[in-house]
Amino acid sequence: MSAPQTPGGPSGTGRAARFRALHRRPSPDDPLVLAGPWDAAAARVCADAGFPALATPSAGVAASLGYADGETPPEEMFAAVARIARAVDVPVSADVEDGYGLAPKELVERLLEAGAVGCNLEDSAGGVLKDPRAHADWLAEVCAAAGDDLFVNARVDTFVRGVTDPDRAIERAALYVAAGAGCVYPIGAPVDVLPLLRSGIQGPVNVFARPDGGPAPSELGERGATRVTFGPGLQRLAAAALAEIAADLAPRGTGS
């Protein structure tokens, strides 16, 4: 079983360096594949299965805490990330939505205190895309505060917000890479658009995959993915499996 790690501390920079190095892939069809654990138990299962790093999904963590996606109080999200990071000895990146309105320095401090070595940061809030230049300025402050201790994955929300022109995603991605983001995440991009995004984006590209169907990570790698994540997909599969087991075990009859 994976040995637990201690959040923060002198080993934090080393874990961040390990995580950053994982994004330099040996071949196009070998993307970095990150499982998305929603609690410490799931994190240990994923680490023991051989995943080299983990990426928490905000929606999956929210479900595990009894909240709808986007409604988790920041203190509960950071506490959940800390439990996950403490439970394993592989690097952990945390989805912290749009940063919860925190100033860049405080956001970075709280992520590092939780033991995270990376983070996802969205460029929309309340279902509305942010101004890309203003968001890039904010990302630059986050990256400056983070230094080498935190790997920033800048999510590009154009496709999930109804803007289907790939050029708009590429324009935003260019601003975020220039701001210091180590990876960009055009979430919801159609598979057939990935080669165009890959050719237009300078730097690693994160692609969302379904764990219960759809293209395999190797195919997504061939189309342009540097890194593959599953969002809350694993948590939802686990919940569905538990629902079936619970239905079989639940008492039958006229009880309350």
From TrEMBL:
Gene3D superfamilies registered for this protein in UniProt: Phosphoenolpyruvate-binding domains
Keywords for this protein: Lyase, Pyruvate
Pfam families in the record: PEP_mutase
Source organism superkingdom: Bacteria
Coiled-coil spans in chain: none
Example of a GO MF term: lyase activity
InterPro entries: ICL/PEPM, Pyrv/PenolPyrv_kinase-like_dom, Pyrv_kinase-like_dom_sf
Region span, Disordered: 1-30
Descriptive protein name: Isocitrate lyase/phosphoenolpyruvate mutase family protein
